[in-house]
Specification:
The protein is an alpha+beta fold and about 425 residues long. The protein has a single domain (about 1-75, about 110-270, about 305-425), classed as Up-down Bundle (Outer membrane efflux proteins (OEP)). It has 10 helices and 6 strands. It has a 4-stranded antiparallel beta sheet, with no helix packed on it. A hairpin with a 4-residue loop joins strand 5 and strand 6.
Length: about 425
């Protein structure tokens, strides 16, 4: 009698838990006005609001200033010389002194100015390529955060299904306890499993909220949006059309800059003459005379030879880096495609073999428990239901890995490169 009373109270508590769970589920649901956020929309928000854009613009501004500075020729010089204004013997009187005021200009030869400007402009191209690589890396991180948010949302449905199944079975177990078909500890164990599943559901919802908030932090927004679960469930193994990798573009820009530096170093072997004109005043007699002079550096033919050799070696090294980068990128793309195909194959087998069989076993055991038979126990149901949950969780993890590999594949193939045009115009 005591066991029956406790079973009835347990059944009433379970019904109350079901009712409260429904209320909490409705309260936890996102607002109806929350819009679906696609990947393109998330990346577009980052493309217009990411603080990294301002940093890239400042780097380009600095490189542009270097071009402006490279256009400056050697500055003219104005000077004055004083001679014989003090001395011994006949040079002691100040009226024997000489003073010369002069103006000097240096003429750059060998295209130094043009080479200097060309090297600065090549550095501008390098900075622009570096900015594009940084922005693509940030877009890839945003896409990865979007995938994590989708995975967190998908985990909620698994936790909800598990809680619903355990609540339904708890009611059946309570009925069996009342009918003296199962001992009381079976009902307590069922209630424990329900409590654990309820905690897991609460944790899954909180994890999804945090994942949405982390995603929105990339553009300074809030997590008041929804994610389309069908996108996460889609397994598309097609390879996006490949563009020239941004990493290779960076190396190409560095190669061009190295070539410009070679030309600049070669101009260092050409001498720059300077000319001087001045007016000299003679203290004795108070006379004036015009003076003209000039100078040419000697031994300049090989003066910059070391810098030329170094610049040429750097250029050859970058040439080799370009070839290596292209091979490695192609190799990584092939690896990513193969891994995604392997994961897609496992997902298909889980959908076709594992989940149907495990779900059928759960349904058979649950129907047997509901009919009041003694062929099954709650322990068997718990094990069968755990197998279903494990298979579903494994599927979610495989989908997450599949889409994260797709993030890297999109980064290597330059799928989101068109967004860079919008980001680069915000300066």
């Amino acid at each position: 009698m005591f066991s029956k009373s406790r079973a009835r109270s347990g059944a009433r508590a379970t019904r109350r838990a079901l009712l409260c769970g429904g209320v909490l589920l409705a309260a936890a649901a996102q607002p109806a006005w929350a819009q679906n956020l696609s990947l393109d929309e998330a990346l577009s928000r980052v493309a217009t609001r990411d603080p990294a854009i301002a940093a890239g613009a400042a780097r380009l501004e600095s490189a542009d200033a270097a071009v402006l500075q490279a256009d400056v020729r050697p500055r003219d010089v104005v000077g004055a010389d004083f001679e014989d204004f003090a001395g011994t013997g006949p040079y002691s009187p100040l009226n024997r002194s000489q003073a010369t005021g002069w103006y000097e200009r240096t003429w750059e030869r060998g295209g130094k100015r043009e080479a200097r400007i060309g090297a600065a402009r090549a550095d501008v191209a390098v900075v622009g390529a570096q900015n594009r690589v940084r922005l693509l890396d940030r877009l890839a991180r945003v896409q990865a955060a979007w995938v994590d948010a989708l995975a967190a949302e998908a985990a909620i449905s698994i936790a909800e299904t598990r809680l619903t199944d355990l609540q339904r079975v708890e009611l059946d177990v309570v009925k069996r306890v009342i009918g003296a078909l199962d001992p009381w500890f079976a009902a307590e164990r069922a209630r424990t499993n329900v409590a654990q599943a309820d905690i897991a559901l609460e944790q899954a919802r909180e994890a999804a909220r945090i994942a949405r908030k982390n995603l929105a932090a990339w553009w300074g927004g809030s997590g008041d949006f929804r994610l389309d679960p069908t996108i996460f469930q889609t397994v598309d193994i097609s390879v996006p059309p490949a563009r020239e990798s941004a990493d290779v573009d960076l190396l190409v820009a560095e190669r061009a800059a190295a070539g410009a530096k070679v030309r600049l170093a070669e101009t260092g072997n050409i001498a720059d003459p300077s000319g001087r004109v001045g007016l000299r005043h003679f203290g004795e007699g108070n006379d004036f005379a015009i003076m003209v002079g000039g100078s040419v550096p000697l031994g300049t033919k090989g003066a910059n030879r070391g810098n030329v050799v170094r610049a040429q070696a750097e250029q050859r090294a970058i040439e080799a880096d370009i070839a290596v980068a292209r091979v490695e990128i192609d190799r990584e793309i092939d690896r990513l495609v193969a891994e995604r195909q392997l994961i897609a194959s496992e997902i298909r087998r889980i959908d076709a073999e594992v989940l149907p069989s495990a779900t059928r076993a759960v349904r058979l055991i649950r129907d047997g428990l509901a009919r009041g038979g003694t062929a099954f126990t709650f322990l068997e149901f718990s094990q069968a239901q755990a197998a279903v949950s494990d298979a579903r969780a494994r599927r979610i993890e495989l989908l997450r890995r599949f889409h994260l590999l797709g993030v890297r594949l999109d980064r290597l193939t330059g799928r989101h490169a068109p967004l860079l045009a919008n980001m680069e115009t915000i300066r």
